[in-house]
Amino acid sequence: MFRAVLAKEIRNHLLSFRFMAVFVMLMVVIPVTVLILSTDTLRKREEYSRRQAEIQAYLGQYAHFNRLFAVISPSQPPIAMLTLARGLADDANINAFNNDPLPVMFPLIDLVFVATILLSLAALVFSYDAVSGEREDGTLKLALANGVPRSTVLAGKFAGGAIVLFVPFLIALSLGLIYVLLNPRIGWSAVDGGALGLLLAGSAVYTMVFYGLGFLISARHASSASSIMTSLVVWVVLVLVVPNLSPYLAELVNPAPSRIRIGREVDRMTDVERDELGRKLSAERRAAVIRDHPALADVERMSESDIKATIARDPEFAWAYALFRSASEAAWKEANVIQGQKAQVLREELGRKEEAQTRLALNLSLASPLAGFTYLATDLTSTGMLNQRHFTGLARAWARNYSEYVQKKMAEMRQADPTVDLWNTAVDVSDMPRFVYKEAPLADRLRAALVPFLILSGMALVFIALAYVSFVRYDVR
Amino acid sequence: MTGTIVRKEILSNLLSYKFTAVIVLVVVLVATSFFVMARDYKERLADYQLIRPEPGAPIAVLPPNPLSIFARGLEEAMTRSFEVGAVGIDVRAGQSSGNVIFSFFPTPDFVHIIKVVLSLVALLLGFDAVSREKEAGTLKLALSNAVSRSSLLLGKWTGNFLSLAVPFLLVTGLGLSVMAFDPALRMSPGALGRLGLILAAALIYIALFLSLGLLVSSLVRRSATSLVVLLLLWSVIVFVLPNMGSLLARQIVDVPSVRSLSEKRQQIWTREVLLSYGDRSGWGARIQAMNEEFDRMEEDYRLKFNRLVRTSRSINRISPAASFVDAATEIAGTGVSEETRLKSEVIRYKNQALPSLARDRTAREAPAFSYRARPLGEVLSDGGLFDLAWLSVFTILLFAAGTVAFIRTDPR
Prior knowledge:
The complex is a heterodimer. By secondary structure, chain A is an all-alpha fold.
């Protein structure tokens, strides 16, 4: 019986206008998106290698350790996955004078966007009348008048709709993928294929969440006209409101001071306050030394040349004066350490608060399937938060290697010529450690994507269960 | 006669579930957005008091724009602090937050809500205006009386437009008057005028989607079909076209990346440091030469980039949503042209402040940076009016097409 319901459901959908419309749209939007993104990735690759070549040419001629680090600072090469997903790509470059305003105004399109917005909308369009529409047509009571249990009807409808919805997406995507695979310059690898497979599993679950939701809403309404309204309102809330308000809500609950305020505070602590403390401490220490060494009695009032003359004349004064100087230096050093620690505490506290806020925002946003799927997709394609951490880790490791290399190189230079200016002499850096970017291993990405995946699956199950309960209680007349 | 139809449309809307659902959505969203963005504005204002440059410091910072509460646009980029140094302009990202979730999901502003949600609501009001009456059989009854088809359609259009526009304007007015109680948020008459213009653009934008809804509704037989068509059209107009357009423009116009520019700058600067080492005499001249090289690079980049922006905007204009966002942000003074203009002003300021800095790095005798947003007339003549006219023409064309389709429709 289940198969009969399933077959009927699939046939029904295939012949429907909405299937045609969604299919045509996906067939146009997805391949075009992949095509444009592939061209964009290739262009970025070319530019990246041109930039690297320029850095090489520079290093061959003008390398010197002063400010060399600024020239070779690590940058992320464009990966093959950028043909499908853009994630947190820093296109806006807000830290550079020539920032790019266009992506801020109109976020650039990618597959994740197509899946999150278009697929979820299509899922609701497919499911809003699954129950209420059949009731209106009168076919639901006919079907149930036969010996078909409600659970079978529900399962058949659900499976049929989900298949019919997901298959066009797959077909359209494989059309785009053919282009990516046939283009050897993109360098699509098996690992990328695996990540894409996992991403597809995630988008299947994401689609199911919305299909289940549409089904649930349909089974709570008598007329399909009102069920589509509720569906769309819920869609707007889940897709456009919950994710976008969650970071703000987190800010309200877990406020963090503004970075500008903390920056100013730190500046003040390590500058004005440090000077005050240093002056105070060093005056105290100097006074103590003067008390212990009567020879120094007049030192505060003596001029520079007098001190020099006295030092030359009086060995006891010279010895005491050395103590006096070092006491003052130690006091300043102490002031630096104290204020530095205070500033460090402030910075760490800011970091902690920001971290707590981010975590809360992340958890709040997971109430929306869109946010969960976005995290899952960006982490799997190494374009998300995981990749940011991964890249920072790689860059740090490289920076350590680099500074070791600089130490070693400088020691060699000093050995060859003790008077050499270590910072401003041209050096041969052809043996310098190079920054190499490798994507995070697939296992790590999978681990990062697991939590959102489980949450999405849970949501899908809950919606289906609720849909079942509502459907069992549904008045089919 | 039209008056009767308008009244009937409004009444039937008021009684319907659909209307309740969508109006609650609009009211809640607009109110939330006002609250969130106004609070954000006040925080940015407090930060601005901290980074405000002392007199004589070669730093250019703009205060936050009160209209960014409604149309954020490029506000974040425009309120960064630009510090003039010996080798160009140092940028400190102003208001950046450590919360990375913001970069996934930015807070929705008023313009965003109009662009996405209000357009959807307008479609939902219009999608079954004709096809539902056809299905219910009331259309033929109405037409069997002495009422012309065009006045019937006009009545439907006006009734639905009023039932959306009035609640929308009410909640906006309410939000604005609540804000007016807060002295930190008080706006100048000029800013209020600009806000009025943005509201007018929003009404045209709503009218456009309502006309689109009526057109599709008269073209197809069943309201379910009409809804599917409209939802797909909506997602293409609001999301796909504008987002794809700027990506497409990037493939047409080749612009070097921002990163390559800053890398090249670093290379030139460190090269000069090495070459000038041990010969401090020519340092001033070298800085001069370096700055000229930077300026050349800059100019070349800006030329290409402006071409990219123009191409992207021309492509995006296919979508009324992009036109609306462009017009609204430009009117608010947070748009792309305004930001470009600010940057060229900052460059000019740098050239003004540089001579004294080249003499003495710690000199504190730079002139103060002053920037005035373009007057409204200039904004309108520089594309704003075109966008508004384009939206209106679109609306009129859609309405005309809707009338034709309705006249040809079979009411049975």
